[in-house]
Amino acid sequence: MQQNNSGLPIINPRRLLDESGEQALADLLRGTGYVIQHGMLRDLCHVLRSGLPWLIEGPRGGGKTALAEALAEACNLPMFYLQGMEGLTLADVLYDWDREAQTQWVRQAVAMGCGFEEARAGQWAREFLMLGEALAAYETAAQQEAVPILICDEFDKVSEKIEDMLLQLFARGYAHIPRFGEIGVRDQSRWPVVILLSNDQRHDLSSPMRSRCLYSWLPPPTPRGEVRILKARCPQAPRLLLAKMVRLINAVRSLPGITDKPGLRESIFLLRALTEEGRNDLSIDEIELHLCFLARRRLDLENLRKSLVRIEAMMEAPNDEIEGWIDELGEVAQCEVRRRDGVRRLR
User: 113 to each of 101, 123, 124, how far by Cα in Å?
Assistant: First the structure.
């Protein structure tokens, strides 16, 4: 569990949506640098209102994990994180008993004169129960006002056995633990925000699991959307560098022989690195120095080196459409500054 910042206010995203609407939620996410697509915003609102888990599938590097983390950051909510992988157990996901502590309890109780059967019954108390990430999120939702967020990343890597373990929890909001009872929250309006993320590559999630979730496919952003995202993620990037960065990425993606095309994640990492280095422009020499941001395989790296001249020509070619998108963002930012100044003067 990742605790929220105790020095900042907690925002209930469900209450924010009911009181201020979808745009307020989008603005809150934008404050963290995340620009949510319109269709994803609509689906997120359905998830918040219904309380149901949200299954998001899409290609790697498209912003799935960033969306979940942005929601937790924007609302300052406690976050539980379950990494999908082979070998996950009941203890990782739901619960386990502290066997050593139970044994010591029984021995001490008997030594103090307690009957053996009575001592054995006492070992199934909450203090000996260790919760996994998923069930801990639901217990937190039952005990606190803050809405926790449970992120199950790369969920297509978990086994069918783990999926089966989670079916009851996701459908009812609680899990039954033998010898102890129920843990969780029955009130669906108080369920944690559960976000399952999948690249849809390892194995197909079962129909029972899918039926418990609301479903979204997160496509790669449009070129215009990518400009907006890069500007939001790297607001200090100079205008010329941003324009050339977008043309560079488009050039690399159009090359034949590149197996792993750079996605949004690679674009953000590279623009951020160039900005932190104080770059105002982008030349072929600088591209060559940063190929490690663009290539993900040896052959891709070799093909990029062979194509540098072609990449430079495409990057330097003017693109009125991209320039227009960047100018539009600048105008929007200026309007927002003027609006805020007007609000402050009225106050």
Answer: 19, 16, 19
Give the number of domains in the chain. 3
DSSP result, 192-255: -EEEEEE-S-S-PPPHHHHHTSEEEE-PPPPHHHHHHHHHHH-TTS-HHHHHHHHHHHHHHHH-
Q: From the centroid of its chain, how far is CA 107?
A: 46
Question: Where a domain ends, among 80, 112, 131?
Answer: 131
Q: Residue 153 in contact with residue 81, Cβ under 8 Å?
A: yes
Q: Using only C-alpha atoms, what is the Rg of the chain? A: 25
Same domain (yes/no): 119, 209: no
What whole-number distance in Å separates Cα of residue 216 and Cα of residue 221? Answer: 14
Q: Which domain holds residue 100?
A: 95-131
Based on the fold, state whether residues 74 and 147 are members of the same structural domain.
yes
Q: Give pLDDT tens digits for 291-316.
A: 999 999 999 999 999 999 999 999 99
Whole-angstrom distance, CA of residue 41 vs CA of residue 26: 7
Strands 95-97 and 129-131, by their bridges, are antiparallel
Tokens of residue 307, six digits: 């194509």
- pLDDT tens-digit map of 135-190: 999 999 999 888 999 999 999 999 999 999 999 999 999 999 999 999 999 999 99
